[in-house]
Amino acid sequence: MTAQETKLLNAFETTLSTTLGASGTTVTLTAVTDSASNTIDAPCYLVIEPDSATNREYVLVSSVNIGTKTLTLGDGGASYRHLKGSAATSGLSHASGSTIRYVPMAQHIEDINDRVDTVINEAGTALNTTLFLDEDDMSSNSATKGVTQQSVKAYVDTQLTAEDLDISADSGSNIAIDLDSEVLDLEGGTGIDTTTGTNKVTFAIDSTVATLSGSQALTNKTIDVDSNTVSNIEVDNLKSGVLDTDLSSTAGTDTTIPSAKAVKTYVDAQTTAQDLDITDGSTTSAVDLDSQTMTIEGTSNEVSVGLSGQTFTIGLPSSITVNVTGNVTGNVSGSSGSTTGNAATATALETARTIGGVSFDGTGNIDLPGVNSAGNQNTSGTAAGLSATLAVASGGTGATSMTDKAVVITQDSGTDTLSSVAMDGNGELLIGGTSGPAVATLTAGSNITITNSDGGIEIAAAAGDVTASSTTTFTNKTIDADGTGNSISNIDIGNMTSAVVVTESEGIASNDNDTTLPTSAAVKDYVDTNAGGVSLGLVLALS
To answer: What domain range is 134 assigned to?
Structure first.
């Protein structure tokens, strides 16, 4: 027979749907799948008319067309019909409807024996020399041939006898360890402890090394905040010289940041109780910039004043009424015509006028009782009965008194009435709102503390936040080991991903690459397995 895997299907039986002549090579079946949905698969052996002692025939099926249910008989030129066990060696034919069945037969056993014979002879005393090589030097280096025990021993012995383990490091000269007589010492450097155990050496960092989950304080480290996330920064985290606590003693700069207290103190000093001093040359007055408005107004028929944006325009109206003392030169136009000359030549007014009830025509002085002589002047207003209260419209507060330590504010009534509110508590601020100015104090938010003092407010970060010297555990941080100024050392096995480390159970033989690192146990296991029990001691100095 042939060294092939022939298929066998239990309890399969069907019938021919076409006739198979004595020399036919194909036949169609009624079914190719049984009740359990098992389908005939080639190559396989079938028996036609198994219950007929005179017409039974064993055949070899080379292919099955499931769609047409057609079998092709043959094995590439060898015998395919009238196989051993058939009722005759030739000339058998079968009608449509004949039974065809899957049965175990001698041909299956013969195929198995043929396959075994390709590896070992029929007597079982010798291997097929075409499959195995007996080469002490392994010179063929075949990936498809086996090797004898003697060849393996001879080759390994030649490779290990008097062999050295060559070692190089980042610094120092190369060394060689005699595998027969010397021991390689694995010695921990700074921050590294080594411990030997059963067939392994354990490397571990000591207490001088900061870990991601440890509570060590980081010093002399550089964190790139443009690539990492740094949060909860406090004022204490700022570099010396960055925080400006006194704006009055420093020039404006973009390299410092003022504290809230410094800003408040400076602004208060610039605006609180500031006045605008004004004078007409003889009289000086002041306008409170916090609460008052300076008004520039003209006089009807004398001076006109206009305001556009931030520009005042002062001029003369088209019609002017004035009293003139001195010489007037030029033309004066009016309803009475043109007048030329010196006013000093006039002796009397053309029409006398009444001043305070006294007739005046310019020919003599007038006497006003209550002004330049004793008596009462008939005037309108309340000058004689002015109280201590000055109206807002007249530049006052509208109040007879002020609360101690108070400021003047407008009320929410929509009128011009002013009032005062006390500011006698530490840290109180005057804050505007839809209902008008009100006194309030700052409220501390998350991770912030506020301390109020007489005339000051201190805002600080809450205790326990991360600082440069705090003992805080970092989580979810990314440190670029290749970044400028960064350095990561003392890496332990536990710091590496599982894909990088090859363990003893995984085996070096299954990880023949330059992208993984073997553990000591993996190296020892591989060497022990391939070295025939040679003991290898290792000593490594790390720094």
So the answer is: 129-161
